[in-house]
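# step 3/5: fold
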Amino acid sequence: MVKIGNIEVGEFPLFLSPMDDITDLPFRQLCKRHGADVLISEFIASEALIRDAEKSRRKMLFAEFERPIGIQVFGNDEDSLLRCIDVVADARPDFIDINWGCPVRKVAGKGAGSGMLKEPEKLVAITAALVKRSPLPVTVKTRLGYDENSKIIVTLAEQVQDVGIAALSIHGRTKSQMYRGEADWTLIGETKANPRLHIPVFGNGDITTPQQALEVRQRYGVDGILIGRAAIGNPWIFEHTKELMLSSSSVFTSQISHLSSHISVSDRVAVCREHLLAAVDFKGERQAIFEMRKHYGAYFRGLFDFKRFRIPLVSVTTLDEVLAILDKISAHYAT
């Protein structure tokens, strides 16, 4: 059984990878109901939390059935991060995740996220201070290194372990790669295989099918995986991955590879509707209608002649209008 501190998270936990403006409470809960083992909040700026910004406070809200859940924070100032730890601990998640991995300019350009990989000694020192301050297990999510010439993850993993983190998640790209190219799992595997490392190592990057999840488990020996963009519009990926891992039948394996593409339109509509209504309940109609627009294309990806519905879906402004379009989608593809 894999543990984060004293918290059991499963034999091979499937994480919903934190994604800004995606992994909010309604989407997390949807993925939990479809088999995600561990959830993590959207990342939250430490400076915003200590200023008591309402939007950031709302990002920390979660329901009991979402456990085990972590709240992820980022920043580059040690004092702000330490004060932030106190605020997050008061929300009582199961663990606190430090983001040393986000590569986007508005984060890394200010020395936070994967920008901190340019200063590994500072990264380790701040991590040590946060672990000391936190009453909850502290985990770290990071990347292979800052660029191609500084892939320091094997050494860095030992260093952050030795200052007390409870688990490490590694995205198989450097900061400089952003999300380009293919994720390199070889260094993730090398990190996991390091005999000095005794904390769980979770892998992240380009897991888009159950088969890929099974392959990285078998090839690289990681303790679990994070699934991110592949879950958008496809929360079924978690339960399908579990089904595959429970089966050793090659026939079953070949069948499972096509399951996500064969989810019925009625099921897609039903889950999209569930997601939409939960978002409206949590954020209000106006904000939810706007934010859900980024999800529709994923829910209905691959449907022939879907353009006739996609444009209206991202144009209408009321819940009743969206629901009416979803009903039309069901009727159209049922014939």
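# step 4/5: annotate
The chain has two domains: 2-261, 264-334.
# step 5/5: archive (pending)
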